[in-house]
């Protein structure tokens, strides 16, 4: 059974449960939503990511979460915390936050609402000293939200990832320390 990690005004952030892969595949795995994340995935790939997230939550107490819209009860996205695990990244093992929102809920502030809850979780309960977020220059909405959240661009952590097309390289990072987060509250 899923654990509720946080609630916001409009969202419930809960751990991933077995049936969530099919629903994520149906509502989040579109070309538009996945455009800057390597494109749509196969169901088995989502199932594997969910299994890994459930294992991480059991072992480490954090993972990616499903975002459930309170008003409708529908899955509207996912967001959470993992460790940087890209072998090309200079900062493997840092706490990494990430998010995505389904296309019919874009431009409603759900990503910011969810990520603010994820940051609070990261800094108050997970006890992360800092977090990073990875994106590309082409993903303007993503890095604009990072800046809005008070995150700082870290050009020293940029890296090329051949898994992504040229327009999504280099991979860029923003970071936020616990102190920076606390002073912005």
Characterise the protein shown here.
This protein has about 180 residues and is an alpha+beta fold. The chain has a single domain (about 5-185), classed as 3-Layer(aba) Sandwich (Aminopeptidase), CATH 3.40.630. It is built from 5 helices and 8 strands; from the N terminus they run E-E-H-H-E-E-E-H-E-H-E-E-H. The protein has helices spanning about 20-25, 45-60, 110-125, 140-150, 180-185; strands at about 5, 10-15, 65-70, 75-85, 95-100, 130-135, 150-155, 170-175. The radius of gyration is 15 Å and the shape is globular.
State the gist of this model.
The chain has 185 residues and is an alpha+beta fold.
Overall, the morphology is globular
Radius of gyration: 15 Å
**CATH class descriptor name:** Alpha Beta
Poorly predicted runs are none
Going across the major beta sheet, what is the strand order?
A: 1-2-3-4-5-6-8-7
What does the main sheet amount to? 8 strands, mixed
Structure keywords:
alpha+beta, 5 helices, 31% helix, N-acetyltransferase, GNAT family N-acetyltransferase, Acyl_CoA_acyltransferase, GNAT_dom
Write the topology of this structure.
Layout: E1 4-7, E2 11-15, H1 20-27, H2 43-60, E3 64-69, E4 75-83, E5 95-101, H3 110-124, E6 130-136, H4 140-148, E7 152-153, E8 171-177, H5 178-184
Parallel strand pairs: 5-6
Antiparallel strand pairs: 1-2, 2-3, 3-4, 4-5, 6-8, 7-8
Protein name: GNAT family N-acetyltransferase
